Amino acid sequence: MPRSIKVFQVDAFTQDLFTGNPAGVVLGAEVLSDDEMLAIARELNNGDTAFVLPPEGDDHDVRVRFFTPRTESSFVGHATIATQYVLSAVAGSPRRLRQRQKAGLVDVEIRGGGPDRRIAVRQPAPILGRELNARERLAVLDALALSSADLDPRCEMRIVGSAGNRLLIGVRGTQQLKQLKPDFNRLTTLSAQLGASGHFVFTLESDVEGCLTQSRMFCPSIGIPEDPVSGNAHGLLGAYLLHHDLLKREGGHAHFSGAQGQFMNRPGRVDVDLEFKDNALAGVWIIGSAAMVFETTITLP
Can you give the residue range of the structural domain that contains 93? Predict the structure, then answer.
């Protein structure tokens, strides 16, 4: 018997069509096999596609699986923003809910309504990993066509993790971001060697009004040469900046906004709110808008 599923295309971390980070959202995915989910992700050819499933227990309201065109991901920030935007618009989901994915549970809040609706997703506190040694730093610089002089001396290359490790690389300014010439084959090899699936290059000298940082993200090892706007990486960046005394804490919170996608003609903005408990970082909220591009139906045999 034929199976019909609803598919949505959503641009996350923006209110404007054809900007931000595109994601597919598939409702009623319980009728799909793993191979079919991967095939649909390849067909849509977004960086990530989210597949919405019924809950399996009382500790969550919805279950989601994420696929790149190449593999399954444990958690994807922009696709979570897109998913919850669709559910709030189409299914009237509650203002607060809990989502389960391969990486575990995350809390979600729907803030505002209509075109000003914003989705807030709470990540666990990131884990600061090791700094790269001199040999590893040179290999990364070579793969990005950078020199040591291009690096921000305040920022060490460091692996940071939360639902997947990323390598954070601070550069002096937007000129360094613009001139990046990533060698994707070499970055893929480095990802395996370093245990970090993405290379997040950022500067504290943003030229976007209201944004502390500007960045680019490369994830060729999981089938995403360049990710337009990464919510997860901005959460990791928040913990990194706090550790290096580059972000000011005010009471129980610290805030910043980051710009990404400008060099792909898909500009977007991620707002980050870091929470503290007993003087320790307790969690990170990734907050963003979204815009519905289209919806369609796929019929499978």
Answer: 3-105+289-300
Same structural domain, 164 and 253: yes
User: Residue 45: inside a domain, yes or no?
Assistant: yes
Q: Over 90: is that where the pLDDT of 106 sits?
A: yes
- Let me know if residue 159 belongs to a domain: yes
Could you tell me if residue 69 is inside a domain? Answer: yes
pLDDT tens, position by position, 190-218: 999 999 999 999 999 999 999 999 999 99
pTM summary value: 0.93
| Burial label, 150 (beta-carbon count in 10 A; 0-12, 13-18, 19+) | buried
What distance in Å separates the CA atoms of residue 251 and residue 265, rounded to the nearest whole number? 37
For residue 189, what pLDDT is reported? Answer: 98
